[in-house]
Design a protein that fits this description.
heterodimer; A: 116 residues; mainly beta; 47% strand; B: 111 residues
């Protein structure tokens, strides 16, 4: 079974530039998560999708971050414009059904973003 | 807001010594999961606990969920160098479907 795919693996940009990350979850997984993991901290949930609907985006900085999951499969996360404090690893995870502690989260390898 | 704290933040042990990390939530949890993240890697699922007071074992690892479902622990017996990494708990506050990750405990094992 193929795992969660993410691209790019690394990205270096200057502040105020835009960047986009892509995630392809495990085939058939209904729920997709985007997390931000700052160095030395635990993953922080940014947005949770179930199929192509948003379940939770309470911690997404909506003035600069946006995410979509068209057709309920792969997803993109965008930052525009980027700030220095956005430097982090952006992790995508998926679960078969609705998540919420009753299912294992499968994580992708992450995208390491450095904002200069 | 809802918070999940872990202690200690760092732990260095000699190979063969035991290790314990504690996870404490500000709210009651429906479930708790534990993940291991190797340096430079992504979190990998270890186990899930659901019932109050539940204890589960995986070889040298013992996981416990508190009676009040607000805390949990992971104990490793006789650590090995392969145990190196950061251990995270992730709890689901009651009535929600999202995971809140703890602050993590970074384990170093000295050979």
């Amino acid at each position: 079974e193929a795992g969660v795919a993410q691209s790019p693996r690394y990205k270096i940009i200057e502040k105020r530039q835009s960047v986009a990350f892509w995630c392809n979850p495990i085939s058939g997984h209904a729920t997709l998560y985007w997390y931000q993991q700052i160095l030395g901290q635990g993953p922080k949930l940014l947005i949770q999708f179930q199929n192509n609907g948003v379940v939770d985006d309470s911690q997404l900085p909506k003035d600069r971050f946006s995410a979509e999951r068209l057709k309920g499969v792969d997803s993109t996360l965008k930052i525009q414009p980027a700030k220095l404090e956005d430097s982090a690893v952006y992790l995508c995870a998926s679960t078969p059904l609705q998540g919420g502690g009753v299912e294992t989260q499968y994580f992708g390898p992450g995208t390491r973003l450095l904002v200069l | 807001g809802q918070q999940v704290m872990q202690i200690p933040q760092y732990q260095h042990v000699q190979e063969g010594e035991d290790f314990t990390t504690y996870c404490n939530s500000s709210t009651t949890l429906s479930n708790i999961q534990w993940y291991k993240q190797r340096p430079g890697g992504h979190p990998v699922f270890l186990i899930q606990l659901v019932k109050s007071g539940e204890v589960k074992k995986q070889k040298r690892l013992t996981f416990q969920f508190g009676e009040a479902k607000k805390n949990s622990s992971l104990h490793i017996t006789a650590t090995q160098t392969t145990d190196v990494g950061t251990y995270f708990c992730a709890g689901t506050p009651g009535g929600t479907y999202k995971y809140i990750f703890g602050t993590g405990t970074r384990l170093k094992v000295l050979a």
